[in-house]
Specification:
Elements (H helix, E strand, L loop, with lengths): L9 H16 L2 H11 L1 H12 L18 H16 L2
Helix pairs in contact: 2-3
């Protein structure tokens, strides 16, 4: 028997819940940030690329403004990761 359109997939929901539980048990956002500092290439190629929209208009220039420093960039990344983990 087919499921109703729009009904949640129980397997996907269980997998997501398990992944979130494992993430928290491994240290959550602070542990991910520590790992990302040690492995920036892997972070940006394996994780970050999957979190940003596939199609987006992105201005990669500074527009004449100073580029953000390490602390501000780190704060923005942490905020994005926390928001993504709440989905």
């Amino acid at each position: 028997m087919a499921t109703r359109k729009g009904s949640p997939n129980k397997t996907s929901a269980a997998a997501k819940e398990g992944t979130i539980h494992a993430f928290e048990q491994l240290g959550g956002v602070p542990a991910l940030v520590a790992w990302a500092r040690e492995n920036p290439t892997q972070f940006y190629t394996s994780i970050w690329g999957k979190l940003i929209p596939r199609e987006s208009a992105v201005d990669v220039t500074s527009g004449g403004e100073p580029m953000i420093g390490g602390a501000e960039r780190e704060a923005r990344v942490i905020a994005l990761l926390e928001a993504a983990s709440k989905r």
